[in-house]
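--- STAGE predict ---
source: upstream dedup step, 1 unique chain passed
mode: sequence only
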Amino acid sequence: MGSRTTAGTGSEVTKVTIITDTVSDEKMLLMGMAFQPIAALVDYEITFSKPFRLTADTGIDSLTHAIEAYVSKKASPFADSMAISAMRLIYKNIHTACFDGANKEAREAMMLGATQAGIAFSNDSVCLVHGMSRPIVAHFLLPHGLINDI
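--- STAGE serialize ---
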């Protein structure tokens, strides 16, 4: 099974997938171990061409994944270590990645942080922020990361 993402949210390492019906413009969330990848190729260089807004939105989505995994009632020491590392990396690098999209160190740190956040929430869970953002995103067709931030 293959996965494609805008790069930078960590979804490529999770047991969650979103399928969009392009006719009805409906997004369906599916979750289960059948969606968990055996391996994921994660290459930060594919993010160099991402514009500011997409970098910011996916970065905030990743940060939200890490925070929610860390405060989840299902939290575990392994997932917490991934979440803490992700929060540090994203916090330290999101500004640079947004304003200097060609900065290799910032882009690599953001991708690593996003991947760690994906591992964290896939082992624990996301919480209320994601639960509240889904209907708003669907109704108003706004970026998921932006609504998580709000």
